[in-house]
């Protein structure tokens, strides 16, 4: 009896311990990325490099099978860019910090379960789109180009983190907007104005998914669950009925 209870306890605690181990591992990644960025802000790039080297040893570790191809690719690419930036003596300080920030946001997006840090940049991205739209309406090319450059620069920093959290379709849609405004100048005012408005709507949706989409997803989950439950009930009923009829035939014999 004692051994049986011990087995039950082990079965109950094992999943919790595994989950805790996964959480601890991911938290190590997050802490290292945070420290690397902090050292970069202090312009202590030697220490930042040490943190990035430490990350190389810790990632992905025993969690490799838990990560998607996209997650692995994004983290490894941002880590590589950050490492090159901190060791590039001819690169400006702000550019080096930008690469570390990009890496930091990507790791956070991988680790965060609720509110990733990149979603807190809506107050930077959305006003820049508004600035661009206003500049187009007033025909102010210089203001438009300045706002566009800041917007693209900011987007390039948060894009890897977004690629981890957003669906490929959403990410491709956002990228198509960027390609459009990079390709076409401010001389095509009417077409550009419409594109900017659509882009702003899509970015708003990325930052704050609508309740209608969440409701649709919930409805889909409930519908699928209902089908599965109905099928199980039907199969159970048929089995019960078959067993009952079999019992009647035996009694009749």
Task: List the main descriptive attributes of the protein structure presented here.
253 residues, mainly alpha
Commentary on this structure:
- The chain has 253 residues and is mainly alpha-helical.
- The chain is built from nine helices and no strands.
- α3 packs antiparallel against α4.
- The longest helix is centred in the last third of the chain and has 42 residues.
- It is flat.
- The two termini are 44 Å apart.
- The N terminus is likely disordered.
Rg from C-alpha positions?
27 Å
Count of distinct strands: 0
- Cα(first) to Cα(last) distance is 44 Å
Helix- and strand-based class?
mainly alpha
Continuous helix count: 9
Helix coverage percent: over 70%
Q: Please tell me what the overall shape is.
A: flat
Secondary structure elements and their pairing?
Elements: H1 2-41, H2 45-58, H3 69-86, H4 93-111, H5 122-137, H6 141-165, H7 168-183, H8 189-207, H9 211-252
